[in-house]
Amino acid sequence: MSLLSVPVRIVRRVTIAALVILGASCTSDGAGGGGTASALAKPDKNAISTPAPDSFKVSVETSKGTFTILAHRAWAPRGVDRFYHLVRLGFFDDTRFFRVLPGFMAQFGISGDPRVNAGWEPLTIQDDSVKQTNKRGMVTFAKTGMPNSRSTQLFINYGNNANLDADGFAPIGEVVDGMAVVDSLYAEYGEGAPGGAGPDQTRMAAEGNAYLAQNYPKLDFIRQARIVP
Predict the structure, then answer these.
(1) Mapped to the 3 state alphabet, what secondary structure does the chain carry?
(2) Which of 2, 28, 80, 140 would bridge with 113, disulfide CB 3.0–4.6 Å?
(3) Parallel, antiparallel, or unpaired: how do β-strands 138-141 and 105-108 relate?
(4) Which whole-number Å values give the CA distances from 48 to 40, 45, 83, 221, in the listed order?
């Protein structure tokens, strides 16, 4: 059984699943990001493995307003390095908040371009030790129940989710400004398929934003995410 099929009341106690994207087709025409299509779809493994700054801020402009994430490399170095390079390449531009569960979390990080998803799918990163707790406002990579399965998906904690700490969910940063924007993200679609009526991550990976625009048009989205001074 996929972790995504676990009822949300159990998921909240146990885990947050980032579906491993397998066999994504290449049907989209645009990269949907600040970087070039080729850089996003065929990431340079050496370039994205270089260390990030010790700390940095990311301004996230969304369809509901702007919020700011402050990342701390000392908290989770592998995760922060990945987040830094995803932002630098424009990966999150025009991506949806596809799993927004009030009181729990808001999840994002699947590209609107299937070619980009296919390019990043095998580039998982090793786990980090959990040094901070998953409290309100903390930003954390999603993962499956398998070790070293983090890739591009993250979530922002709405409440005190300290129960996730023991399952290896290591926060990489925190929302330091604009948490009210995060609170306002559209949440009426609920849990994702197959456990709920929300978006199916497999179809998101394979069909991109076209699938979401047709079936989940009210989802809020990231216009752009940029590193700021």
Answers:
(1) CCHHHCCHHHHHHHCCCCCCCCCCCCCCCCCCCCCCHHHHHCCCCCHHHCCCCCEEEEEEEECCEEEEEEEECCCCHHHHHHHHHHHHCCCCCCEEEEEEECCCEEEECCCCCHHHHHHHCCCCECCCCCCCCCCCCEEEECCCCCCCCECCCEEEECCCCHHHHHHCCCEEEEEEECHHHHHCCCCCCCCECCCCCECCHHHHHHHCHHHHHHHCCCCCEEEEEEEEC
(2) 28
(3) unpaired
(4) 11, 5, 10, 24
Query: Which residues are registered as beta bridge partners of 171?
Result: 140
Instruction: Tell me the per-residue pLDDT of 68-84, one tens digit each, with 9 for 90 and over.
Output: 999 999 999 999 999 99
What tokens were used for 215? 């079936």
Tokens found for residue 212: 């979401």
Ordered by where they begin, the domains of the chain are 3-28+60-228 (2.40.100.10)
- Cα 77 to chain center, whole Å? 17
Q: How remote is the C-alpha of 92 from its chain's centroid?
A: 8
Query: Per-residue b/e over 35-61, b at no fewer than 16 CB within 10 Å?
Result: bebebbbebeeeebeeebeeebebbbb
Amino acid occupying residue 18: A
Amino acid of residue 92? F
- Model confidence, pTM: 0.86
Q: Give phi and psi for 177, each to the nearest 5.
A: -155, 135
